[in-house]
What does this fold into?
Amino acid sequence: MKIEIVDSKTPKRGSLVLVVGEGRQLGSFGQQVDKACGGALGKAMAAAARFSGGKGQWLEVLAPGGGSGGGLNRVLLAGLGKTTEVKAVAYEAVGADAVKRLATAGETELAIGAEVLKGTMLPAGEAAARAALGARLGGYRFDKYRTKMKDREKPTLKTVNVLTQAAPAAKKLHAPLDKLAAGVEITRNLVTEPANIIYPESMAAECRKLTKLGVKVEVLGEREMKKLGMGALLGVGQGSERESKLVVMHWNGGKKGGKPVSFVGKGVCFDTGGISIKPAGGMEEMKWDMAGAGAVVGTMAALAGRKAKVNAVGVVALVENMPSGTAQRPGDVVTSMSGQTIEVLNTDAEGRLILCDAMWYTQQRFKPQFMVDLATLTGAIIISLGHEHAGLFSNNDRLSEQLAAAGKSEDELLWRMPLSEAYDEGLKSPIADMQNIAGPGFGAGSITAAQFLQRFVIDKTPWAHLDIAGVAWSKKDKATVPKGATGFGVRLLNRLVADHYEDR
Ligand code: BES
Ligand code: MN
Ligand code: ZN
It folds into this structure.
């Protein structure tokens, strides 16, 4: 599917989407099309009593008839609601829903009239650029393993033209957004792939592909990690036939020698729980226990793709958590790269064990301006926040506020959770510096996990931990986020960088 921004004029064929304000308000382009169709659109709106142009309402007008509009297969009217309240995201939703409605409808050409209606405060170029972004994100599909799709199930849509009066401005705004969408797609693909396809080595190979965007990619194997003393990370992977990997990605788009921003991702390519094995029901979901790492890869791709003026490092810890004769046992004591020892009481609390070494390495080597880690870390965060917010834990109010604001603008919501010494009690081990889970009765599993990670933050480095267990995978369709792997984190982090950390 090719998505392009073009000057608005009434298309002669295919399908066309027009935006409508509350009270059935068409814009000037809409009126022009209506005229070309001999007034068919106005009549259709009057006939469909329930269609008022309200937010999220759609009305399909088939074969809209005579005049020069006669070549159109259909016109879809998309309600935006009160025009004074319309924001850019509304255009993303229109682009996304339009593509979803027509992807498999037999149509090959779609035009989206992304005009800004009277009363809406939004640059025309922005509306069009966001509609195009929405079309790509909402039109995402993962069909590669379906070999028996019936013809009528297959997507037919070949081109999407986003029509605007401000094509040059829209194209300029759209270029970086399209790179962002490409980053989100990389993440969604990695997260959707099953664990027989994406395992540490193959995921590292996917990271290497960022080289073509100008990202420098280093891959450390078990030998190198052993030399570095990453006993916590290596302990998690020791039960697997697959070699653990640590991938370091550098994007140097900022001032030479300037301190980088840094992102660290949990990449458990499959989490069986290890010897503390998980129940069978639903275990297949643990193929996406590498979504934090996936988001880091997608973010690096987005930053490099749009040539962001920032120095950024992305570090992903890639392991497979398996039970076997060589697997780590409950009660084993491991020594992390920091020198701190950890008693592994539960081998299913493995995310923190790989992150602690990856975080230490990142800070020691790069002295970053800040470090954000992303991890599908705890089931408990789903109990707290469901699937609407990711948990945000941070030692720094400024970073925390920047992240929360970025999440709001990109609709990747965060909710701040507490960190506090009082929770440390549960991590006391009778034999080592700490244990990897709090004992029974402590509760607050997501917070104790974050407290554990905080012990690996060096010298008050501004740090934030995003527990994305509830938001990395979705069972319901949202406009720009179809069911399945969401790509959560890429838009958020890209926005964080764009708003606060790029050289001007
Ligand atoms: N990957 C899981 C967390 C998870 C659960 C992610 C459900 C997505 C959906 C993590 O490694 C894990 O197993 N956490 C345990 C920790 C416990 C043993 C302290 C959990 O949440 O049950
Ligand atoms: Mn686990
Ligand atoms: Zn896990």
Remarks:
- The pocket of zinc ion (ligand 3) is lined by residues 268, 271, 289, 350-351 (CB under 6 Å).
- The first strand starts at residue 2 and ends at 7.
- The domain at 2-165 is CATH 3.40.220.10 (Leucine Aminopeptidase, subunit E; domain 1).
- The chain has a mean pLDDT of 97.
